[in-house]
Amino acid sequence: MLSAFILMGNVLNAQVANVLKLNSPNNLMELKFYLDEQGRPRYGFKAEGLPIVKDGRLGILLKDAIGLDKDFVVDSHYTLEMDDSWTTVWGEEKQIRNHYRSLNVRLKQILGATKRTLILEFRLFDDGLGFRYIFPEDGNLGLFTVSDELTTFPLDADHDVYWIPGDYDTNEYRYSRSKLSQIHALQFSEDNNIAFKQSVHDSLVQTPLMMIAGDGYYLAIHEAALVHYPAMNLEIDRSKLELKSHLVPDVLGNKAYLQGGDKTPWRVILYAKKAKDILTNRIILNLNEPSKIADPSFIKPGKFIGVWWEMHVGKSSWNYWDKSTALSSKFWKKVNHHGANTANVIRYIDFASKHDIPYVLVEGWNEGWEDWFGAYREHIFSFSKPYPDFDINAISARAKAKNVKLIMHHETSGAVTDYERQLDTAIRFMIQYGYPGIKGGYVGKIIPRGEHHDGQWMVDHYERLASKFGLNKMTMDLHEPVRPTGLHRTYPNWWSNEAARGNEFNAWSRGNLPEHETILPFTRLLGGPMDYTPGIFQIKMNVYDSAKKEQVHTTLAKQLALYVTMYSPIQMAADLIENYEKRPDAFKFIKEVPTDWDTTVVLDAEPGDYIYMARRERNGKQWFVGAITDEQERLFEPDLSFLTPGKKYTMVVYRDGDSADWERNPMSYVIDNKTIRSTEKLKIRLAPGGGCAIQLTPAGKN
Amino acid sequence: MLSAFILMGNVLNAQVANVLKLNSPNNLMELKFYLDEQGRPRYGFKAEGLPIVKDGRLGILLKDAIGLDKDFVVDSHYTLEMDDSWTTVWGEEKQIRNHYRSLNVRLKQILGATKRTLILEFRLFDDGLGFRYIFPEDGNLGLFTVSDELTTFPLDADHDVYWIPGDYDTNEYRYSRSKLSQIHALQFSEDNNIAFKQSVHDSLVQTPLMMIAGDGYYLAIHEAALVHYPAMNLEIDRSKLELKSHLVPDVLGNKAYLQGGDKTPWRVILYAKKAKDILTNRIILNLNEPSKIADPSFIKPGKFIGVWWEMHVGKSSWNYWDKSTALSSKFWKKVNHHGANTANVIRYIDFASKHDIPYVLVEGWNEGWEDWFGAYREHIFSFSKPYPDFDINAISARAKAKNVKLIMHHETSGAVTDYERQLDTAIRFMIQYGYPGIKGGYVGKIIPRGEHHDGQWMVDHYERLASKFGLNKMTMDLHEPVRPTGLHRTYPNWWSNEAARGNEFNAWSRGNLPEHETILPFTRLLGGPMDYTPGIFQIKMNVYDSAKKEQVHTTLAKQLALYVTMYSPIQMAADLIENYEKRPDAFKFIKEVPTDWDTTVVLDAEPGDYIYMARRERNGKQWFVGAITDEQERLFEPDLSFLTPGKKYTMVVYRDGDSADWERNPMSYVIDNKTIRSTEKLKIRLAPGGGCAIQLTPAGKN
Q1: Facing residue for A420 by CB, picked from B330, B420, B460
Q2: What pTM value is reported for the model?
Q3: What distances in angstroms separate CA A56 from CA A43, A108, A182, B553, B559, one per listed residue?
């Protein structure tokens, strides 16, 4: 489809008393913009007649300068209609339609000798709204420092909300559901086994914020294209039922250092009548800039195994030396269970090769793991010095011979100044040994000291990293970064992130509730793929240590279903080799499920309850279905009309055993084989905490 | 001379009641150490029977941990005598003797379950004392954070002091002289035309602190080997006449992040009966570690000219684009007086080559000068992108053909995170074009925001830089860094620093008093060489702009004398080419004076009044004499007995004209030629603010 920019003088359907109004392409959404009696910009957003956001405030306060919040007049404005579609490098869909009407309002501030200009840009889609502040180059703004952003979202009612506490440094919380007015962020902030967090305010929550309105619609607030600006938390005014932008500060309490030519990220409101339509809302991707990677052919979605889960279950260690003896290396002894040793890594390489898994992650390969945790120091990790028992030449040669690529692990321990200093050397090292990308980590307080994971300085860092790795044809998957905002469109080599509570919490803490994975796609994943690390077959941890009571809160079949319901172009098969070798029939699904899709159909979904999803592989005709449930048993009765009518399909169903239950019998599963057509009626039991994965191959195709 | 370590059981001449005493090699200095009734370490220092420091306190307070300040017992102690000498890579002297007795006291803290250890090391010389804290690797200290250092220097009397205000970010103050008890730092902190400063405390002064005792001795307090620790300011207790260590904090208020195996810099007290002997005190160098540069042959002392003073006098600009038009580059126009253009740089190269000057500095060659000052932003400067009118290939080719090396200018604007990020690229660029080193700059508030020029983070940065440039066989000369502490012994490629109020203040501010250069060698230069940029022949600025009232507070002859009195291995001939071409007879001295010496003899000196100094060139027999005075006219009657007796010397005297005066007639000078012997009696008038430079060449040698 060709892009279509249409200047639309006639879309503004009422301009009474300086109110500008704009309708969405299907005319069901309405935006209004006006300046109030003090010249303060205001906006409202209606969906199908419902007042979703009522008279929200807009404005930016500056440090040591007059704010960009009032005394404005409208200098000029124009509207456009855009209807375009674009092809993703990888993703849940191959083609994405971008259809909106936009309103661009140029405001002039009438105070003072220097006339300053601020532009507000709104894009109204059929399923939501995005808007941002633009600081024009010729707007007499110069250099300025943002002290606060005044954007508010006054809501229509006391919605139910899926939320995690506002925080400047982490998103690894369990989700809570409560009425907006009943949210008390701090009561949940202490109980999450999170190493480093900075929750600061009882009325502060993070985005993406998922809301369920009593009168039958769903709403999510997030941001898109977070670049050179801090992340936005939302501050709740419980009496007004209003959310206000709360930007993550820097060490001096400033929010952002900007200048003419800069713009804020988009503030985004996603709207749907049905929960499942939130999951295919593409506004956030559409509001991001097109790919900056000229030739993305080096970005090859796929799966990986890795020397990783064995550390989380206590079988081996990241560190090579025994850190418990004394601080000085003079006094260190070797541990006898270092995971990233040559023989073990080669075992992973051989297994990956045997099962056509393209990547192997190795954690603990490099110097620095003895005294890093919480050290809050620079010069802890080297990103180019392997431990003595990691024979990098032998390992690299084996990987090359076996056609497997090794993903480098770069744990910064938050010492980002030091990491950036070493980065050129690290990249040269990666080029030397043929590494295609990194898994990065930011566990710990950030250095520069006083900066936060989600502040402007770090947001700049992540983008710089994506750009630099991109130039070097390398990918990155960051753990503990700021939560994503669709930047994987612009930097498709930044192909995944953690930025939420991942599967590993189940290995050593009270873990994640069975409902956790039914919430994530409605919250965290709205911003982009997550490296959740599914595929755990050995669900109870007492196998590794009889004293352990921890377990993954899942059935085995649900772990398979997650490969469909929880999207990432790079997916881990996270469990140990030996656990996969014991269950080759179930592992077959992990081998076969793709990580890049042509089409996604959400069969049904309700946050906190269940997600049923079907996806067709990119450049192929197979379909894969994933169905997961929370702690409730459910009957999954998928409508298979997404299949080509009349065509026969070979179906393999990986389902919970009849007595399966996440707590009492999690590892019971059944595999059924059958030939079916799209009219087939299925009834599949999902166990409490269970799930189901289905592979559908057109008959005649292998 | 062989190094001589002698274990000296007998030097401790009294051990009554846990008091350990140590005498200096000549037995005229005495150190005592003891633990008081609370187990707090204490020390005292006597010189020739005078109680220089009386019962100083020692100790380190930690953040969130019990302090290392009391409840100690002496675990063990030993003493050594060292008599050694070592050869400098370059310097004021070729050979330096290192003769001291040391006392090493191992303290154990008796509180708590974990027995922690702290070592105090004292080195007592015939002309002063150094001591430091050592945190042993096996001392059960782990990682710790210093919140305060308790070291005090309780003085014997209310000495006269040459001081500048304590500050966390700058040393570019004019010096004041007052009684210790009369120092009010803040009263002088506002009046110095310093771009960025952080003076915080009315009783705070910086080191090196020069004191003149009423009863006839001189004292200077400084530190040596400032590594991985913040700089020390001194806090004055006016009633007790006591100075206390005040460490520069980081953004969180912490002082230093250390661990077992670390040590503090040396706290140093220099002592002399005569002021002139302070100038040849080598304790600070002796307390630094030997050179880490295995092959220092790439470090070639010499002189440089540069595209620099012309910007300070307003003849040309650093920036290529006119920054006054608007912020965005879209709106910029070219300036018509950009200094670092190809033709101008080639003019400097040709002049340098013609006069055997090995180096040419170029400032303003690189992108970023439009909007840098005070911007407090990253991504301002590029260190590998020349301006369009700086034809780097043509310039580099000309420099190569003319056997001249270009010194790169790296102005960071304080954005050190960004500089470190670009450093690998910058060094590769320097290698590509054959640049031998940098002049670095730190004008502005530091990024990481909230860090200070003189805090631990920046101290680490400077050392990292010295090490990295050293590995790449490059030199560095830093402007606006922390003041030096003798680290040029360890990193001889870190060959100069500004770190004080330089000559350029005279070009555009009330400038420096005529006494300024008679104080600097007694203060700032105790730590190491200074890039003061002498050699200004055109002394009044009204030549460049008739409205200008500024001038250098000097005569022309004094500018020549500074090449002898103000040591640096890399000395600028700072004035414009045309000013040198007008006075080739005077410029001859600049051409001939070396920057590397075999021997230094201070004929006489008094801080704030005059300095008379003679030096013999390294690997040669010529002597050079420099004599400078403050605003007072003086008769300089040098004793030439440093010359080889009986030998004839050709003498060239560059002296003030008979009516010369820094204010009324600064550019009047006379050059006398004569043949003399060491018994010659000279009488040379030094004009107010004047000086005299002498070259003495053994007759028969050319």
Answers
A1: B420
A2: 0.95
A3: 5, 20, 22, 63, 68
